[in-house]
Design a protein that fits this description.
homodimer, about 575 residues, alpha+beta, Butyryl-CoA Dehydrogenase, subunit A, domain 2, Butyryl-CoA Dehydrogenase, subunit A, domain 3, two-stranded antiparallel sheet, 17 helices, about 10% strand, globular
Chain lengths: ~575, ~575
């Protein structure tokens, strides 16, 4: 297919030549699948994304959702696209067969999702939210809750939301003030009345699904009506827009947020319980809300990474095509115009985008592949360590790739006539939602490294193994030495921050995350180059081009990117403590 | 005044404590001025920017210029603001008294402009274009041309444009196809008929000035009707929208470009000569167009730097105020909410913005001060060297500052309810127009350094002088050693690229520009810290705070930024030649 979305030969290389997806089919839960069934899912995804999701990309940016007395109205083309997605059964793809799903590996469904995110990020967002919601209910909910609230989402008839933030509580969920007062029991379980305001609710209201299932974090007051402090008192509730009998629940849209990008996804301030309390049912037990939500959150963070990678990937394809087509400058005054791809600086911007976009996609796929490992402790620990990296590296460098895609287009890239400016605006959300870059840095350094989790040990082993393989390949052995040196720098920095007093250990968590992210990507690029070198003799045609491209991209990364690690680690090691001076009051 | 624009005490520190503006008043052309007259200009600028330009910032983004049969219509508030600016005589501020101006130093008028650019970049753009146009005509035009076309612009009644690019000729002006056929002579000089299309014309049409003066680059065909190749055949023409007698000239708006930001500035595709040829008068002689335009272009590039710095500066002020006000997280679960400025990562993002915004403003002011030096050869050479740096560093790191301003605001920063997302969209233009970052890199390395211009010698002397001063100040002497080492790296890289074959010398001109820019900023931050250390004993109040802030910002730059130079120079030194591989066809 001719489209600027994910390149199929690249996806095939990553999944089959690199991540050995074939070995997954030996797991009992995946025995129904093989290369052919997965190829069919990808064929379908690619075509639907290009033919149905991509055509309304521009219009869903310019005609935003609006609110009237009936609620929020969304561009009908978004609803049409999602109905086709549902009719093909794709909402159910990652669910087990007993829930009516295809039981596909996460590595496959996440990749399928990336085609849709590349084609239309804001239309695809409804998919991600709905699937995550249904997964949470089907994991922690009662059979009746699953039957009533998860299945219609798995069928794609109802859509879901995640109601975490409040106007006064964004990154810190301990400050949640929404209250849930016990209101008896029915066939759905313990029933509550919820009152409170929820902010930044994507898909919080819309007119393109039959119903909306809100998953709401709230606190249950004690006998004196006082809410528990901190995060341990948070519980999770299912609050449908329309009740199972069709009557309207007490959930109102207080306003729409008007965003820089991602405009097709409605984003709402919701008021719960303005008229006596919205009815909600507890999921699991009281006080388990944050733990439940975080099980979903890790998947959501990898999905954000996939989305950011997909936007970067599409931007790169647009820029590459433009650079081959657009003439500017001549080698001789009377010679023909040169396509701008002949100019070194344009080539630098293109290969940087390739490296950021393909690298981010590879990183996210690596994480998705870990999800599919039979939840062994090693894979789980490594996944926990890499999740903040997959989320942040893809978001930050995916955005950097989109910035370069604009720059390749020159003035045209700054206009809304070309897609690259919208890709850039859309991607700017990704370093913010599902935990900002700053939050991810603290998660990585504070929770995943300084507490001595064994994810780092697993990572060390895998890097050592990649280095051992690369050492035997002539054109890669210098890079094997370079990545070993970079990882020594990371280890030194971990020692240095470990010696800082108390909370100061995390002061430079973000520069550390950037350094760590580049070190992870350095390892993965080398690992990709090893896989490509090994596969090359068997490959031909486009698959061969992809593999050769991986080896050259790896060289670019080691020549232009790897040494940034040293710069980011300098403040981490030096602890100059400028951040704790009086500079802000001067 | 309480506003988020330039901080007056900072401006005063830069101009008087650092750049010794007082010594300028000894130059004969500036003897009418002193601290008081300049203070009055700044008072006026600050107030008009905050009270008249800033209030329509949002609305000029959401209600874009539109085109109908009468031409382009612009938000009336933009016209109102510019009329007030004109009534106060500010269009004339930088012109000599014999042209009806105030004869103010450029360092003063450029600073005044920065307040307006911070308040409303797209309204201020009409000022920059008009002043640059009038300056060009008053420098190269005949007395009749000056009288007819420059003076109404100096009065602010007519506005000006620069018509360089064409749809097929952006960065490469040698490809200009607009033709000018000789059509006699009149009191305005040699008259021509112009035909052709001009793209990206800011202010190309509007309904807020009495007339529009286009300055158009075009080529005069030879006897066979053939246009000269390359840039040497380019000439400059004055083409008014309405003729001096009030009749309409043959200039038509073919379309409006719809941009990501800077939306209040209309941006047009203009068709010249659809009905027989637009009448234009030659400025100077044929073939001098590019030289004339480039004299203006250097000033325009520094103005872009000022604009980018101003947007970054305002974004920082918004983020600082937000961070002090917004609560999120608690140090104890039952304690009060902490303002987010207490969080280390927020503090890091704030001090980075301060360093980028205040650093960019200082760099541009340093260049503006060089413009005012009586055009001695040393200052001119240094100015030529620093112009691509002032343009690019301010644009790239000003945008980075605006990115961080959004991040400090979290989800709110991504909405159009807050100003920071618009500042970011506005600033994204600056690395593109008036020569992209890639073009500036080639200018710096190719034209200003590798040809052996003496600007680099002047810079070396000035850096040595700063280092000598810093060595005597206890808290700065380590940084004096660091910047010396960084400059040694720059010198080594210059040697390395000089040895590359032919055009390959410029392959890594952009990474070199980034490294060079940070080395220049490292020098300037140290120079600012020296000036601040010396001035501190005499300062009190806000002036004292500003000076202390400069010393701490300098420390931040040396702790978090300076070492990036090494990373950017690595590919410059290593010449791995990845850019010339087949990667783009794979």
């Amino acid at each position: 297919m001719n489209h600027p979305l994910l390149r199929r030969a690249d996806v095939d290389f990553l999944l089959f030549d690199w991540l050995d997806l074939d070995s997954l089919f030996e797991q009992e839960k995946f025995t129904d699948h093989n290369r052919e069934t997965i190829g069919a899912v990808f064929d379908l995804s690619e075509r639907l994304a290009a033919e149905v999701f991509m055509p309304h990309y521009k219009v869903s940016d310019s005609i935003e959702p609006y609110l009237d007395a009936d609620g929020v109205h969304v561009l009908p083309a978004i609803g049409d696209a999602l109905r086709q997605y549902a009719q093909l059964g794709l909402f159910s793809a990652s669910f087990s067969t007993d829930l009516g799903g295809f039981g596909l590996p996460y590595a496959v469904t996440a990749t399928s999702y990336a085609w849709f995110a590349a084609a239309n990020a804001s239309t695809a967002a409804y998919i991600m939210l709905t699937v995550a919601n249904a997964r949470l209910i089907s994991t922690f909910g009662s059979p009746a809750q699953i039957e009533t609230f998860a299945l219609p989402q798995i069928e794609g008839r109802w859509f879901g939301t995640m109601c975490l933030s409040e106007p006064q509580a964004g990154s810190n969920l301990g400050d949640v003030q929404t209250r849930a007062a016990r209101d008896g029991e029915d066939e759905m379980g313990a029933r509550y009345r919820l009152t409170g305001n929820k902010m930044w609710i994507s898909g919080g209201d819309q007119d393109i699904s039959e119903n909306i299932v809100h998953l709401v974090l709230a606190k249950v007051p004690d006998a004196e009506g006082k809410l528990p402090t901190g995060t341990s008192g948070i519980s999770l509730f299912i609050v449908p827009r329309a009740m199972p009998d069709g009557s309207r629940n007490d959930v109102a849209v207080a306003g729409l947020n008007h965003k820089m990008g991602y405009r097709g996804t409605s984003n709402c301030l919701l008021n719960f319980g303005e008229n006596g309390g919205a009815i909600g049912w507890l999921v699991g037990s009281e006080g388990e809300g944050l733990r439940q939500m975080f099980m979903m959150m890790n998947e959501a963070r990898i999905s954000v990474g996939f989305g950011a990678a997909a936007l970067a990937y599409r931007g790169y394809q647009h820029a590459l095509a433009y650079a081959k087509d657009r003439g500017q400058g001549r080698t001789r005054p009377d010679g023909p115009q040169t396509p701008i791809i002949e100019h070194a600086d344009v080539r630098r911007m293109l290969v940087a985008q390739k490296c950021y976009a393909e690298g981010a996609l590879a990183l996210c796929m690596y994480c998705a592949r870990l999800v599919d490992e039979d939840k062994d402790a090693e894979s789980a620990a490594l996944l926990a360590l890499l999740t903040p990296v997959a989320k942040t590296w893809s978001s930050e460098f995916g955005l950097a790739a989109n910035d370069l895609a604009i720059q390749v287009h020159g003035g045209y890239g700054y206009t809304r006539d070309f897609d690259v400016e919208q890709l850039y605006r859309d991607n700017r959300l990704n370093p913010i939602h599902e935990g900002t870059t700053g939050i991810q840095g603290m998660d990585l350094l504070g929770r995943k490294i300084l507490r001595g989790d064994k994810g780092l040990d697993v990572l060390r082993d895998r890097i050592a193994s990649t280095i051992a393989s690369a050492r035997d390949i002539t054109e890669l052995n210098v890079m094997a030495m370079q990545i070993r040196a970079s990882w020594r720098e990371i280890e030194t920095a971990i020692q240095a921050v470990g010696k800082r007093p108390g909370r100061r250990a995390l002061d430079d968590a973000t520069p550390f995350l950037f350094a760590f992210g580049h070190a992870v990507m350095g390892w993965l690029w080398l690992d990709l180059a090893v896989a490509a070198s090994r596969a090359l003799p068997q490959l031909s045609g486009d698959a061969r081009n992809v593999a050769k491209g991986k080896i050259l991209s790896c060289r670019y990364f080691y020549s232009y990117e790897l040494m940034k690690i040293t710069a980011w680690l300098t403040p981490v090691n030096d602890d100059c403590d400028i951040l704790n001076t009086s500079i802000y009051s001067l």
